[in-house]
Amino acid sequence: MSLFSIIKDCGGIHNIQRVLIPDSRIIIEIHEFELLSAEAKQQAYNLTLKQVTYQQTVIENKDEFGAQLLEIGQLISDQQRQDITPYTAPVECEFRPDWHISPPQGLLNDPNGFIYHQGQYHLFYQWYPYTCVHKDKYWAHLTSKDLVNWQWQPVALTPSDWFDSYGVFSGHAISQDDLLMLFYTGNVRIGEQRDRHTTQCLATSTDGIHFTKQGPVVPELPPGVTPHCRDPKVIRHNDRWLMLLGVQREDEIGRLAIYHSEDLKTWTFIALCGDELGDFGYMWECPDFFTLNQQDFIVIGPQGIRSPDKSHTAPHHNGIVKAQLETSGKALLSDFQPLDYGFDFYAPQSLETPDGRRIMCAWMGLPDEIDHPSADNGWVHQLTTMRELSYDNGALIQKPIKELATLRHTPIVLSKDETSFDLHSKAFELQVSMQWGSVLRLHQSESGYCEIRLDSASRRLYIDRSNTLIREGDTVREMSLAESDSVQLHIFSDTSSLEVFINEGEAVMSARVFTDKNSTQLSFDGDVQIQACWLLNKASAPFIS
Questions:
Q1: Pairing between strand 358-363 and 379-380?
Q2: 455-459 long-range Cβ contacts below 8 angstroms, 24+ apart
Q3: Given a cut of 90, is residue 113 above it in pLDDT?
Q4: 304/308 Cα distance (integer angstroms)
Q5: Triad 492, 354, 341: Cα angle to 5°
Q6: What are residue 434's DSSP bridge partners?
Q7: Is residue 519 part of a domain?
Q8: Of 81, 108, 141, which closes a domain?
Q9: Which CATH number covers residue 46?
Q10: How many structural domains comprise the chain?
Q11: CA 383 to chain centre
């Protein structure tokens, strides 16, 4: 018996949801029981999971089994691509951003595979197209020449194979001459208890558009680690390849696992890293690695650490640590600091541009928050703006990329005698100087606003979105600032977001801000000097191929 004959007995490829091969079994998850053949109905069947189970001993030619699995996966992928076609058309919504990346429909989360390859930028993101829930993720694919205007490409990866049928989870990309290589986590669930199985997988493309899955390249878990092992980042270091993985130890402590390889296909475990940080969260996600001004950094997403301020109640954090890579490949980590002090920033990825800049973007959301007003229109979440990173005089600096200046429309001249203005748009760039004790309100109308205030007594900056249409999540973020006479803010606003770069990029605060479509006013109390203001044009919609 071949795998193809099993598929036929189970109603054909159009009746197949997924194929799983745990232990010595072959599990076929189906859509309709009535389409099973009489022989298939004699096999063990789980009514709850709609799964038919065969023993692998029924396979006559074991040598062809692996190739047949990949071929079946490709057939399932072809069907999935047909099924998602209606969901690639963007739905209209008053909260749709003018110049940020958002999904046409469904749910967006982590950016993936952010890289410059063969003359253009590639950016992928986690996407579930059907509804606004976290489930069975795809890799959506965009390309750009300028990091501002993005073009939709065919979906790169679908959850179609035995090693990733419950989600092609996050990962990174490597550019090797003409070859674009995607490393990602394959997620699988087994049984009614939904036991998690994760492997680190590879897909390759010679044209940068169409990808062929190669299957797992790290098929086993690191020693002492739970199946919470994901998000591979591959780097070149000391003439060999290293893979960084976010993991959870069996004692539920987050750590970084590191592997090495000579050929990008065979990987050997080196070590778990991060003990010097102590008990630092129950899971680390989405590692990244880069060097700024001769200092190595690793980005981690520690879940469950202590929040930097009392108003931050979410367990999900993102930050950067200094890294010292030993010759063995093991990393010593120190000096964790948040990458963003706002509400909505997670799972960042970075790349190096041809002119040597380090550019980062992130998911402008958090894992547990999906009930946004846009969900009523069938989509949720967006990515942050692109930031340029530098390391100067011992400080990490983040600034908006210079390419954003191409979006500037006619400068807006605001009277120094007025304290309230109607910009007639939520898409704008604003440079202001605020004295302590002053308040700035944005996205304002009679129905609400978002407030930025400087508290003189505590020397803290607050962003307060409690007077907006927010449905879940924190409403206030705060951070301490160094002693100064004034605070310089460089603000980028879109239809439903604000990103505030503080004191020439010493800190950033990002926020999704939902207000009604007429909330286009700006006002302030106290000593606020508006230094420059531009309305921003729309970027190319990231849904158009």
A1: unpaired
A2: 459/483
A3: yes
A4: 12
A5: 30
A6: 487, 528
A7: yes
A8: 81
A9: 3.30.1360
A10: 2
A11: 8
Catalytic one among 110, 161, 288, 344? 110
Other CB atoms closer than 10 Å to residue 471's CB: what's the count?
Answer: 12
- How far is it, in rounded angstroms, from Cα 496 to Cα 478? 20
Active site residue 110: yes
Phi, psi angles (nearest 5°) of residue 446? -65, -20
Mean pLDDT value of segment 411-435:
94
- End of a domain among 62, 81, 100? 81
In a domain, 499, yes or no: yes
Domain membership of residue 446 as a residue range: 402-536
Question: What is the identity of the amino acid at 125?
Answer: Y
Please give the pLDDT value at position 445.
Answer: 97
Q: Is residue 215 part of a domain?
A: no
Within 10 angstroms of residue 375's Cβ, the number of other Cβ atoms is 18
Q: Is residue 504 part of a domain?
A: yes
List of residues 6+ apart from 121 with CB closer than 8 A = 114, 115, 143, 144, 145, 147, 351
Nearest to 113 by CA among 167, 171, 58: 171
CATH number at residue 409: 2.60.120.560
Order of strands, sheet of 283-292, starting from the edge strand that comes earlier in the sequence = 283-292, 295-303, 319-325, 331-338
- Binding residues for substrate, by number, are 107-110, 126, 169-170, 230-231, 285
Q: What is the pLDDT of residues 183-201, one digit of tens each?
A: 999 999 999 999 999 999 9
pTM: 0.96
Tokens of 201: 């997988």
